[in-house]
Each structure stands twice: as C-alpha cells, then as structure tokens.
Input
Amino acid sequence: MPELPEVETIKRQLEKKLRGRTIRNVLVRSRAMVKFGAGKIPNAKRGSAAQAKKFAQTLRGKKITGFGRSGKFLIIEISGGWRLVIHLRMTGQLIFIAGGNLKRPLLLSRAKRAQKELLPSKHTHVEIEFSGGGKLFYNDVRKFGHMRLANNRDFEKIMARAGHGMDALEINAAHFSNLLNLRPQKRIKDFLLDQTAIAGIGNIYADEALFAARISPLRKTGSLAPAESLILASAIKKILRTAINHGGSSLKNYVNARGAAGKFSARHKVYGKSGKPCRNCGKPLRAHRIGSRTATFCPNCQR
Ligand SMILES: [Zn+2]
Output
C-alpha cells in the first residue's frame, strides 16, 4: 500500500499540474529519504549529505517533461535525461499544493485523532517548489519510501534491479497463463504479490481480485484450470480499473496528489474484513496467513 491504482491516481493528477513546469528550488528535510544515482548509500538511516546536496542541486532549474509508472514506482521525467524514481512503500504521500492554497490545512490521515495540518509537517521530507508558485511535498510517516534521482544509465540499473514483470493493467490472458505455468508450486496469492511476475498488485487488490474470481488464495497456481486463469486475469484488470476510477483506496495514510482520500475503500468486499459476513453468501470471511502476508477470503465462495 499504495498499490498500482493509488500510484496511477497520483501520477495522473501530478501530470496535469506539473508537466512543463520548472523547478525553482528543492529543500531536503530528511536526507535519508533521498538518493542520488543507483547505488546503495553507506548509512541508510542517516543518509548522505553529499547525495542530498547533489539531489537538490541537480533538480534546481530543470523542467518536468513527463510522467511514468512501473508497477508501484512513480517516475517523473526531468529535462536533461534525469528521472525521479519514487516508491511510496507504506505511508508515502506526494501532495501538490498551488501557491494560493499553501495556507490551507489538509486532513492527511484516517487515524482516529487525526487533525488537519499545514504542510510542511514533521513528516515532510522533501519540498519541491515550482516557478510560478506551488509546491510538491513528499511526506512519509514510517519513512520506508524514498525518492531517487537517476540519469539514464542509473535508471536502467534501478529498473533491472526491480525486475518488474508485466504491468498488472496490461495483463493479457495468454501471458498470464504462461506466467502461472512458470510458477506452478506457488500459492496464487503469493504469485499475485510477486512483482517480478506481475507488477503493481499488493495485498488489497490481490484479495479483491481473488474474491471476484471466486478463487481461494491458498490454491497453487498450477491447479488453476484454463477457464479460471482467464477469469482471474480479467478480474484483476477490472478491479484495478474500477479502483483507479474511484481514486484508489485510503486505509490510514494514503491520499492523492490533492491531499484527498481515495473512495475505493468503501467498495472493498474482503480486504481487512475477516469475521464479517461475505457479501455473496453471508458466511464469515476468514483471514489466513500465507508467508508474511494475510489473505482474507470467503472459504465458501472461493474454491
Ligand atoms: Zn461467500
């Protein structure tokens, strides 16, 4: 979390606001959250002052030329052949606020006692200011995410290391069935989460797609009949597209690039609903641990 629909939502919103804009200034508040180039930095906790400086200096004066996404990575294309590769991990937020709205507080968390706050907040790690006004804020409560600035060669390295498989929005039935056959012993839920097979799906959309396809998350991929593989491939695409149309899902920290919550969470049928009645048959949904993840499903409807 955020998964493909959330990253895609942010990408589309930022593209509208920022394509063609020039970066006036960059303020790195937590240097551990930014990286320059493809390499690992020596002290991941404290970051590197030299890298943070290069990060900010390189961006200053450059223009935003385009946007892309690979799996859950957001990619901002920058003039001069640079790319900003952003992974929001658990709690990352990218919020653009136009110059005139910088004094307007936003509700950026679904936590019970959450209050509206002004940006930058104590969770803001990078601020990017644009010529003509407006700022992009990178917030991250848990600090698992990062922003990485890369030239063409480093970008290739970063992408090769991620090893992303087919984008989940681009799934076609034949390729999907091939991928299943290549990993016959994997549990289907694990398979869906494996970014090197299909990129972009996380816990939420894996659970929702399996429910929609009436397939148990505990099944081995090799046990799926051709018809089931077809149904699952189309369920994944449908769930992801519907989620994008609703601006993604907000659990605790996800907000879109305008600082607003996604509306797809209200449409979740199984994710996070263990013990609640199945929408289809009324029997209680069950949570089952698979590796380090939990799958929630209906043992009656999903076979
Ligand atoms: Zn059911």
User: Anything to note?
Assistant: The two ends are 26 Å apart (CA to CA). The chain is about 25% helix and 20% strand.
